[in-house]
Each structure stands twice: as structure tokens, then as C-alpha cells.
Amino acid sequence: MKNGRLITVEGIEGAGKSTVVGVIRDWLESRHIPCVLTREPGGTPVAEAIRQILLSPDFKESIQSETELLLMFAGRAQHISEVVAPALAAGKWVVSDRYLDASYAYQGGGRGLPFERIQWLEHWIAGACQPELTFLLDLPPAVGLARAKKRGPHDRIEQERLDFFERVRAAYLIRAGQFPDRIMVVDALQSAEEVQALLLKKLAELQETSQNF
Amino acid sequence: MKNGRLITVEGIEGAGKSTVVGVIRDWLESRHIPCVLTREPGGTPVAEAIRQILLSPDFKESIQSETELLLMFAGRAQHISEVVAPALAAGKWVVSDRYLDASYAYQGGGRGLPFERIQWLEHWIAGACQPELTFLLDLPPAVGLARAKKRGPHDRIEQERLDFFERVRAAYLIRAGQFPDRIMVVDALQSAEEVQALLLKKLAELQETSQNF
């Protein structure tokens, strides 16, 4: 059985994740590397239905932090078993717009849930489906939110206050410090060209270490 | 702060839970005891939306056991914080059609997930919101499913095979053996009158031990 590779893209709202996913996709396609682009929360019909609950601004009832974390991992269990694990087993590269680190950042840093609980869920649900490379697009939340605002109305999580996103950003950076070999922090205030150049250099390095191609 | 009491009703499909909830409600109302009737999965708008995902037979994708368990506890976290805990704090009696034991029975016994994982989630999410009295309506699954079939089309979980419900029943009975003081096993093959007489006797005992009324 061939083994694919899992690349994740992380960052707060307006950091430019979609653009970065596009750059990675173009790079993979230009090399005829079979790949799957996906996202969290979501990635399967059941997980997208869970995403609807998570992001809907319509619930008058406030969603508990514990509920939010459990919903994230419920969708993730589905996403991993239906999409990520089969694709990796088939030798494909998987690019996910947000993945495990996002739970540490949002539900850990943002909501203040203990990291140990998230870790327990991660070990259970994700097991060996760990990303090999993560691009963390970092920028001040005030800048990111201003960018995101231009795209349309905010979802439930985007409606949080600035200090929430400051905590999310800090938790992301703590993760980067804990996993320096896996997580590449990219300054998202740079121009699109500068970001792209950094990505392409890193992807080329990753491919060199690959035994599959 | 007054403390209410939490009564739960458990059992497989067609065991007569709704009838029993009605008997308890009538008994409470006749004594002018303020009560809240609720159910799991569900009990709040967010938890009912989660219930839709859990029970919908429409998802072609099969729902993973892990996803099912996490969705159950996601809804439960919401249900406890929005409904159960506030009602108990207000001195009300809460009657829930299914609660924690159902996860041990369905996701533990039925799906085969380790009881330790369910216990970890229970300690985290339910904390002190434990039922004081549980009526476990027990009957052979073949009988219960035949009864439930008359009510209309089966939901996703009701569509499981008979051996699934045999495992659910066994896990329920194991719980009853572990918590004999809390869980009262009621033979649901008895007549409605016989079941009602047992319930009323037990409820009267429970009220005698109450300091609140």
C-alpha cells in the first residue's frame, strides 16, 4: 500500500488560506500528483451538516464550548474515516483547509478548554492520520477580520470579539513552537508573491523527501 | 438554592418509554411538583438539530461509531447546561426520556465502543448531573421492535439488526447490575397497569426521601 501525504493549512479568518490551498493544488497538478482538497469542519455530507450547526448564526441558544469541541471531533471522525485515511492509503496527497491544530487554537486557545481534553480526543479520533506539513498563516487578527468582512456576513465564530482571535492566534503560535519541524509559520502580511515563493520552496523540499514519486 | 431531582427512563425501541414518562408526569402534576419533561438525543434547539443528523436515514454515508458517540455527548452537553442543570437548580424535577445510560447501551453495547471512553466523556460533560432514579424498561428486542414498527418508518438506529438490540439490551442490564440502587429494572412485558403500579410505588418512596417538599 502506497502512502500519501497530508498537508494542512491553518490560520485565522482572512489569513489567506484559500489562496494558499490554491497554490498547493496548482503545484500538485503541475506535477501530476493525485490529490484531494478538503476542509474542516466539513469534508463529507455528515460533517458538512455538523458544520452547519457549528457556524449557523441562527441559533438563539448559545453553543457551549464543550458542544463545539465535540461537534468538531464528531465531524473530524467522519472526515478522517471517509476522506483523509482512504486518500492517504491510496497514495494521494491530501490538502486540508484547517485540521487538528484548529481545535487547539479555537476551542483550546479561544474558548479556554483544557488542551489535555483536546489531546485525548485527538489520540482517539485521529490516531496516525497526522499532518506531515502545516502552513500556519499568521497575521494580526484585526487585519484578518477586516479582510474577512469584505467577503460577506460573519458566521457564528467569526462574530467573536477581537480578543477571542488574539487568543486563537497565540494558541496557533504555541503549537508552532511545539512542532517546529511540522508547522511552518508564514507571515501573511507579505505579498501573495512572497507567500507563494515560500510555499513552493517548502513543497519542493517535501517532495524531495518523498519515496513515492 | 433548592435541588430538584433527575429521573430517567431508559430502554430499547417499543419498550413503552413514552407511556412511562406520561405516568410520571401525571403523578408529578397531581402533587403540584414543578417538573420538566425532556429527551435525549435532543432537548434544546441545537441538540434537536444534532438529533436530526443522528437519526436521519437519509445520509448515504455511514455514520462512524465514534461520530455517533461524540454527537450524542455534544447534544448532551447542550441539554445539560441549557435544560437539566438550570431546572435542577430551580428545584424542579426533571424527567428525561433516555440519558447517560443510553450511551453505554447503544454506543458501548450496540456499537462496541470501549466503556472507558464513554465514562471519560460522562465525567467531563455530565459531572454531578447524575440521575437519582432510572426506570429501565426491559423486554426482548424482537417484541419491542415489532411494537415500534407499528408507529411508522424506522429511523437510522431503529434500522439496525436484531443482534444490535440484543447487545444494547445486555449492556443496559449490565448497567442495572452495576447501579442496583439507582436503576430499577421493569419487566415491560407486563400489562400497563402492572407497570404503572410499580412506578407509583417507587415514586412514592422517592418523594418520602425528599427534603424539598
What does this protein structure show overall?
2 copies of one chain form a homodimer. The first copy, chain A, has one domain (5-211): 3-Layer(aba) Sandwich (Rossmann fold). Helix content of chain A is 54%, strand content 13%. Chain A has helices at 17-30, 45-55, 65-89, 100-110, 115-125, 141-149, 162-178, 192-208, and strands at residues 5-11, 35-39, 93-97, 133-138, 183-187. Chain A has a 5-stranded parallel β-sheet with strand order 2-3-1-4-5, with helices on both faces. In chain A, helix 1 packs across helix 8 (192-208), helix 3 runs parallel beside helix 5 (115-125) and helix 4 (100-110) packs antiparallel against helix 5. Chain A binds chain B through residues 44-46, 49-50, 53, 59-61, 63-64, 66-67, 70-71, 73-75, 77-78, 81-82, 117, 120, 124-125, and chain B through 44-46, 49-50, 53, 59-61, 63-64, 66-67, 70-71, 73-75, 77-78, 81-82, 117, 120, 124-125.
Globally, the shape of chain A reads globular
| Uncertain stretches of 5 or more adjacent residues of chain A | none
CATH architecture of chain A: 3-Layer(aba) Sandwich
Number of domains of chain A: 1
Question: So how many helices of chain A?
Answer: 8
* Widest sheet, order of strands of chain A: 2-3-1-4-5
User: What's the average pLDDT of chain A?
Assistant: 94
The proportion of strand residues of chain A reads 5-15%
The Cα radius of gyration of chain A reads: 17 Å
How is the quaternary structure best described?
Answer: homodimer
Interface with most residues: A-B, 26 and 26 residues
Kindly report the CATH topology of chain A: Rossmann fold
* CATH-assigned homologous superfamily of chain A: P-loop containing nucleotide triphosphate hydrolases
Structural class by SSE content of chain A: alpha/beta
**Tell me about the biggest sheet of chain A?**
5 strands, parallel
Q: Residue share in helices of chain A?
A: 40-55%
